[in-house]
Amino acid sequence: MNSAVSSQKDKNRDLARTQVGLDQRLVDRAEEVKIVKDQLEGLSDQVIENKVGSFPIPASIQPCSRAQRCDVRTLLHGKQDADHNNRRTIERFPARHQHSNNLESNSVNQKFEQLYDPVFTNGDPFPSPPPHTEVAKMARFIVHNSDWAALSYISAQPKSKGYPSGAIFSVSDGVINQSTGVPYLYVTKLELPIQDLRNDSRCSLTMTLAQSSYCQTQGLDPEEPPCAQLVLTGRMVQLENGTLDWNNAKEALFSRHPRMKDWPADHGFFFMRLDIEYINMTDYYGGPVDVNVKDYFNAKL
Fold first, then answer.
1. Which family does it belong to (predicted)?
2. Residue 125 forms part of a structural domain
3. pLDDT in tens for each of the 301 residues of the chain?
């Protein structure tokens, strides 16, 4: 009996010690969190005053006024599209975003980079479109600067046969700054749209500047005409392995969608292109315009 009581006391004593240890760890952790929070608040002040190295912060990603206490995470990611497109645009247009070589090497800059490694750009985060009067050039601009498109086609599935249907696909018309005007896709016959296209190859691809940061920075709704969009109509064609067109499609898509290289081989992916027959575009007030296909391919970006 005494032995059991003694054993229980030992267990209680061990539990009490463990609890004390846990309590102390929680206290220590709370102090660490407070220190980090204070550091972040200090860094926020530095960022708001545009003192992070030589990278001025675009007004489009400053959701807080200088009078407000602005958290660094909110400051950087208050507009996620702007942040994402800044990073993507730096890779696409390196000449437009040269980083300064005289970065101040103070402790605030170093600590900020260690915490968040921010990427800021000079000027607009997306290249300016051509004038709306240059319709062929505008059409090429939209296509070349689109990473994805809405594919529209006629369904051949039993429950929706004969009805229009749609799906989103990654697209590319060429390596960055080397536009061909030809939209390429990397697809598999496991996808229903591809099965349906084998039954009827007629389709269209819709692309819009709304997928970039341009419309957001201009304060445009995706449906407003200056947030330009176009529809390419034609027939989808599968490319033969090893041909010049096949190699062009591979380079165009894999350079801009690198994850495609690792997609499962047993899914039987292959390349397709849209043979364009008709182009319709809305890029300004007054209604859509038809773009001559020959002029489209002759346009230079």
1. Belongs to the CREG family.
2. no
3. 556 656 666 667 766 666 666 667 676 777 777 776 676 666 555 544 443 343 344 444 444 433 333 333 333 344 444 444 444 444 444 433 343 333 344 444 444 333 333 222 234 457 889 999 999 999 999 999 999 999 999 999 999 999 999 999 999 999 988 999 999 999 999 999 999 999 999 999 999 999 998 999 899 999 999 999 999 999 999 999 999 999 999 999 999 999 999 999 999 999 999 999 999 999 999 999 999 999 999 999 8
Report d(CA 300, CA 178) in Å as an integer. Answer: 10
Distance CA 240, CA 244 (A): 9
89 and 157 together in one domain: no
First to last CA, the chain: 92
User: Is residue 181, in this structure, part of any structural domain at all?
Assistant: yes
Last residue of a domain, one of 116, 150, 170: 116
Question: Cβ atoms within 10 A of the Cβ of 233, count?
Answer: 16
Residue 103, C-beta contacts closer than 8 angstroms, at least 6 positions apart: 53, 54, 109
My answer on whether 50 and 172 are in the same domain is no
DSSP string, 20-37: HHHHHHHHHHHHHHHHHH
What token pair was written down for 6?
């003694």
For 136, other C-beta atoms within 10 Å of its C-beta total: 21
Residues 90 and 173 reside in one and the same domain = no
- Do the domain assignments include residue 239? yes
> 120 with 86: CB under 8 angstroms?
yes
Q: What is the spatial distance between Cα 142 and Cα 144, in angstroms, rounded to a whole number? A: 6
| Statement to judge: residues 108 and 225 lie in one domain | no
| Residue 173 and residue 96 share a domain | no
Greatest alpha-carbon pair distance for the chain in Å reads 100
CATH number at residue 291: 2.30.110.10
Residue that finishes a domain, picked among 51, 82, 116: 116
